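Input record, target 12 of the design panel.
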């Protein structure tokens, strides 16, 4: 049986969290790196909306990154990323929704204000609104080192790629903010083998090519 196909883009935080879960589960996929300005026909045939990540597993197409995470971890979860979700599903899912909704909205308008010409964006206002969300997460992390206790879980790896993107808009400003637990949490992630394993650079995939076996050790 052919490996599932994952259409991905290295720097996209949604695709990043999908790769993190797939790598944690040790499920081998055929990774196809997409150039977003030249989307391959196979991607558009599988998912006409043309965003990444998209996972094609047999006849099933999964177009949402959080669903890809659960797809992988429900098959194999050696590090028990789903523990907190099983114990307190509403809280874990609410935090991911907060990331994908309000935090991502502020992040986009802080990082890419020119994309919203009709909204009279003040980037600093968007930055400060996002920071208020991060302060809440910082208080949670301070209790045990991770968002939901002393061990990492799906919530951490679902939101870390977005916090990374926010931090690097202006790293000096970010590092000066009073969120020490969140700083340590993010820095540990960025220095980890887990992060490095999902961030190698791949050549763009084109229709007719064979994708990359991912993760390498699967």
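The sequence produced for target 12 reads:
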């Amino acid at each position: 049986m052919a490996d599932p196909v994952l259409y991905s883009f290295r720097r996209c935080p949604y695709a990043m969290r999908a790769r993190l879960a797939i790598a944690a589960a040790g499920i081998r996929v055929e990774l196809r790196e997409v150039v977003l300005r030249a989307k391959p026909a196979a991607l558009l045939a599988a998912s006409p909306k043309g965003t990444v990540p998209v996972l094609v597993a047999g006849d099933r197409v999964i177009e949402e990154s959080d669903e890809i995470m659960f797809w992988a971890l429900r098959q194999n979860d050696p590090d028990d990323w789903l523990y907190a979700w099983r114990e307190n599903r509403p809280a874990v899912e609410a935090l991911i929704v907060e990331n994908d909704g309000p935090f991502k909205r502020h992040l986009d308008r802080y990082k890419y204000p020119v994309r919203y010409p009709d909204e009279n964006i003040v980037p600093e206002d968007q930055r400060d609104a996002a920071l208020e969300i991060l302060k809440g997460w910082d208080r949670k992390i301070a209790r045990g080192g991770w968002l939901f206790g002393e061990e990492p879980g799906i919530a951490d790896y679902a939101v870390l790629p977005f916090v990374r993107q926010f931090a690097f808009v202006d790293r000096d400003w970010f590092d000066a903010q009073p969120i020490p637990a969140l700083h340590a949490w993010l820095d540990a992630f960025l220095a980890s083998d887990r992060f490095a394993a999902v961030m190698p650079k791949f050549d763009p995939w084109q229709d007719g090519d064979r994708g990359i076996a991912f993760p390498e050790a699967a």
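Strands lie at 5-8, 29-33, 54-57, 60-62, 212-214.
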